[in-house]
Design brief:
Layout (H helix, E strand, L loop, with lengths): L3 H24 L9 H17 L7 H33 L6 H18 L3 H24 L2
Helix pairs in contact: 1-2, 1-3, 1-5, 2-3, 3-4, 3-5
């Protein structure tokens, strides 16, 4: 069902996905071609906002902030998973793995490596502030537009 809270949550999480992607660009200056990292993270942010944060709006401000944090954690998890899966496919096309199970396990190893890069204090601050702003704006939208 289309609601203003879902739309605001989706747009906020999409913006957070884009800003987070731009921050990752600064963390890895030696990589020049990030491919479609920005677009994938914007799409994942939109989906996390629409499916996770938006439907839970209207339960109070403290719950809204909690839902924003949940949506942001889901965005980071799915972003890491999709980007790790993409990297595994690139490596498997170069015949780096001996079997399907080794390639499947490599997704999680790559995910841990990428996650370690995100343990930057600036990125964590960005994620927390983005989560709080997303939860707040979603709750305001749920209260004002029904």
């Amino acid at each position: 069902m289309f609601t203003a809270a879902r739309l605001i949550a989706a747009l906020c999480m999409a913006a957070l996905g884009y800003i987070g992607s731009q921050y990752v660009h600064r963390l890895l200056p030696d990589i020049l071609n990030f491919g479609i990292l920005d677009y994938v993270n914007v799409g994942l942010g939109f989906l996390c906002g629409w499916l996770i944060v938006g439907p839970r709006a209207g339960r109070g401000m403290s719950a809204a902030i909690s839902h924003g944090i949940t949506g942001t954690a889901a965005l980071i998890f799915w972003g890491l998973f999709v980007q790790s899966l993409n990297e595994m496919v690139h490596l498997s096309l170069r015949h780096r793995y001996h079997g399907a199970m080794e390639a499947a396990a490599a997704v999680f190893e790559i995910m841990v490596d990428y996650g370690a890069l995100l343990l930057d204090s600036g990125f964590i601050l960005l994620a927390v502030v983005g989560a709080v702003v997303t939860g707040f704006l979603t709750e305001v939208a749920a209260r004002n537009w029904r």
